[in-house]
Amino acid sequence: MTKPGFIPFNLPSMVGRELEYIVEAVRAGHLAGDGAFTRRCQQWLEERCGARKVLLTHSCTAALEMAALLCDAGEGDEVIMPSFTFVSTANAFALRGARPVFVDVRPDTLNMDEKQIEGAITERTRAIVAVHYAGIGCDMDAIVALATRYGLPVVEDAAQALGATYRARSLGTIGDLGCWSFHETKNFISGEGGALVIQNPALIERAEIVREKGTNRSRFFRERSTSTRGSAWALPTCRRSWWPRSFSHNWSMPTKSSPGGEPSSLAITTSSRRSKRPVSCACRSCRLTVCPTGISSTSSSRARVSVTSCLRISMRQV
Description:
Strand order of the largest sheet: 1-9-8-5-4-2-3
Distance between the termini: 51 Å
Mean pLDDT: 77
Shape: globular
CATH topology: Aspartate Aminotransferase, domain 2
Largest sheet: 7 strands, mixed
Number of helices: 8
Number of domains: 1
Order of helices and strands: HHEHEHEEHEEEEEHHEEEH
Low-confidence stretches: 228-246, 260-318
CATH superfamily: Type I PLP-dependent aspartate aminotransferase-like (Major domain)
Number of strands: 12
Structural class: alpha/beta
């Protein structure tokens, strides 16, 4: 409740069919992520904003942490970012062991001063993070040109910038990776929520793996859905390059979240059904029975050990 006489910082609101969609998802009886509404929202964001790939997450912080993994940030690395930003920008990379290198901001925009970035680049620099404060775009032409010259990825923290543009391009879709927020104080809301934008095509498959706890579930379900009905199907062959550098987390958007605003079809809920049919692991590094909803051993503890061994081998050889 807003106290009398105070101007509220934000006013979350319902503007369309959000509640109707939530009821639809609940009645379907499937409340996990990545269902029909998730896919619709991701597709809408891709088409509306010109994003190559969008993956919904449970927060913009989660999207930033995924970006840190995709940039291979680690011990001894440095990541350039503005000195004026929310703590999640720095935490995402500090959690990987990298050191934030702060660059002062411009007094007119409160965004990172692009003229000071080059002086902060060293041989340890791993990435440049551009934060679009209050939805005002950084000088992305200058930042991208500098990053290209030094071979560095650009991550856009566009938490406050969904719907804003820079030279007719949506903020969050200009660098290699972008991060949007659906926190209740943002332009589109779901209470908590976010999205990772992947513009670099080389990072799309790995981003799906990072988001899915280090597994290739997204590709598995995608290939299963396109297979011929009645024909045999199996888990895609486990290639070593599929595995991220570290074991990952679950960063998918939670059920019954619904970014409000136009269009109202942005209800992020799910009604997907998943098969329980087991298949055999095709990696040939272990002898396991694999279920689409997770890995399970055949019968013995020996098989369970094989799961760990298979993952460790893959992790070491990335």
